[in-house]
Write the structure tokens for this entry.
Amino acid sequence: MPSFPWQASHALWNDVVRLFLAYVLALPVGWHREQQFHTIGLRTFPLVAVASCGYILLGTAPGYDPQAQSRIIQGLVAGIGFIGGGAILKSGEEVHGTATAASIWTTGVIGAAVAQDRLVLAFFLAALNLITLRVLLPLKLKLDARKKDAPKV
């Protein structure tokens, strides 16, 4: 095992490319959330993906046993859930931020998938995340308007 990064430049650049790809895949969702005037957006989503990717890269380094890798993934899932939970706000009867919280969670999985060389999974998750936020938004707004106009029972 090399002692210094320059001794393993291929592995180092492989990790850098993965981190960059995780960042790039999360950027469109962050951009979309920012354009929709959400407080969590352009900076948060790419950073969640990069951090997730980084933790998985560290946890899958040569010499780590599968149990340690499992604990890293468990901690990552819990930590991202905590961040997402902070995005959910309740105001009276209304709850806001659940789509943002779910998107944060998905973004974490995107970073983890890139770290594991599961690139098709990462691209698919990134596309589904963005499509869900963009395409289903008009439908959600219509349904919300319908709920407001419906008589209270």
Notes: The two ends are 68 Å apart (CA to CA). The CA atoms of residues 63 and 108 lie 24 Å apart. The chain has five helices and two strands.
